[in-house]
Amino acid sequence: MSAEERRESVIRAAIVEFARGGYSGTSTEAIARRVGVSQPYLFRLFPNKQAMFLAAVERCLADTRAVFAEVAEGLEGEEAVRAMASAYRRLIVEDPDKLQMQMQTYAAVATAEASGDHAFVEAARAAWLEMWDEIHLALGGDIEETTSFWAFGMLINTLASFGFPAGHRVWSGFYDEARPIT
Question: Cα separation of 96 and 180, whole Å?
Fold first, then answer.
């Protein structure tokens, strides 16, 4: 395996481990074990744990952006919203680590902000802002539509993280494409 392929393996493993344990609760040893390499080898690919976490954040958000871009291509307005909502629903059902990684990212950014680690915050914020901008463009640059999409998306994240089942009343305000799969 080339160094770049090994780096990709580390990023995929880091998403899983950080999604499940958070930044503070995940050891680089656990990531190395998941990949099947030594811990020192990780540090040949990444300078530190924080760099691994940021790579995982960037990949998770890039993968999510790619899902949205693929399904929204050629669509506008409500069609784009429904296609992206349906695709996101599938993504978090088929790969729940993506949702958990997003949630861990928000917690890590808040912690970093509180401790004054502005470089970390700015790097994570830039990755998230790239996704916001792409969705904004996919929705025709309509700020109200973009805000509504993100508001519902964050509510979906919250409800899914809490594990509310598909038939629960908290989902009743969503259109079918955004409700959990039953």
Answer: 12
Neighbour-count burial for 53-92, b at 16+ CB within 10 Å, e otherwise: bbbbbbbbbeebbebbbebbeeeeeeebbbbbbbbbbebb
Task: Report the distance separating Cα 167 and Cα 174, nearest Å.
Answer: 12
The DSSP code sequence of 64-87 is: HHHHHHHHHTT--HHHHHHHHHHH
1's CB contacts (< 8 A; 6+ apart) are 9
Q: C-alpha 147: how far from its chain's center?
A: 18
Tokens of 175: 């259109």
For residue range 120-148, list pLDDT tens digits in order: 999 999 999 999 999 999 999 999 999 99
pLDDT tens, residue by residue, 95-113: 999 999 999 999 999 999 9
Kind plus residue range of the DSSP H or E element containing 59: helix 49-72
Structure tokens, 161: 């993280």
Classify residue 179 by its DSSP letter: S
- Please give the Cα distance from 48 to 23 (Å, whole number): 12
| C-alpha gyration radius of the chain | 17
Per-residue DSSP letter, 181: P
